[in-house]
Amino acid sequence: MKKVISLMLITLVFPCALFSQERKPDRKLEKALAAMVGEFKGTAGVYVLHVPSGRFAAVNADTIFPTASIVKVPLLVGLFDKIDKGEVKWNQPLVYHDSIKYGGSGLMQFFKDSSETEVSVLAALMMAYSDNTTSLWNQALAGGGAQVNILLEKYGLKDTRVNSRTPGREEDRKVFGWGQTTPREMSTLLLKIRNGEVVSKGASEKMYRLMTKGYYDNQAVSEVPPYVQVAAKTGSVNESRSELALVNAPHGDYVFYVGTKGIKDQRWEEENEAVQLIRKVSAYLWAYYEPKSGWKPSWDVFKK
């Protein structure tokens, strides 16, 4: 009884202690993921970590992939670093002007010129709707790509970087676009946020909440029951589709990243091969870690 009480106290006082176990490879899972990646027409990589057990699987997990919009996770870290230092305020008033409009995903590009807004709206739109206009604005508020990269290095990420609008990284931008990362590193960053280890505990918790409210839920998130919380971010350009996710599963959190590049199938449709790979990996992981859930996705009805 004393041992049980002691364990409960450790869990309550030091919740991150549950996440500090030695990591060991899960060869069975790794073999299954390698088979999925091996069938892919292009380059793909996967990293997954089951947090409570410390068991992981890695397939091309240290290969550098374009982040596309997943770079918005590091940008969020940069923004919250400024907020935590008091250099930017969460409810700081701002005014939108058409001169900063940037196309692609997002809503702010459709705001009327001189519309009043604030920092919290920029952060929410960036993470929920992958808003490109607010993301570039947030990058500037964070001190620019170079400042964000200093933070990434501080957190032990050697290959994850912001390239766009970052002096000295022009050649990297030609190869990888807005940002670059590896499946292992971006999974590590999200897990650090989940554990309250990025910027501050309060900042990490707010960042994590923002990441659970994404609009784009038709890839990895679609393969997890809707009553299970998932923090996720997708990234898509013609030659690359990727996703980062941390699932707060009943039997323990697991984090994973599926990265692709040089894809042959560049269709912007649900049947895109890279999108299907992301769903396949996510579905396999859910069934692997929660084999008795009995849940099957039924979202296909919305494609008709």
UniProtKB/TrEMBL annotation:
GO terms for biological process: beta-lactam antibiotic catabolic process; response to antibiotic. It comes from the Bacteria. Residues 45-260 form the Beta-lactamase class A catalytic domain. Keywords: Hydrolase. It catalyses: a beta-lactam + H2O = a substituted beta-amino acid. PANTHER family: BETA-LACTAMASE, SLR0121 PROTEIN. This is Serine hydrolase. It comes from Chitinophaga barathri.
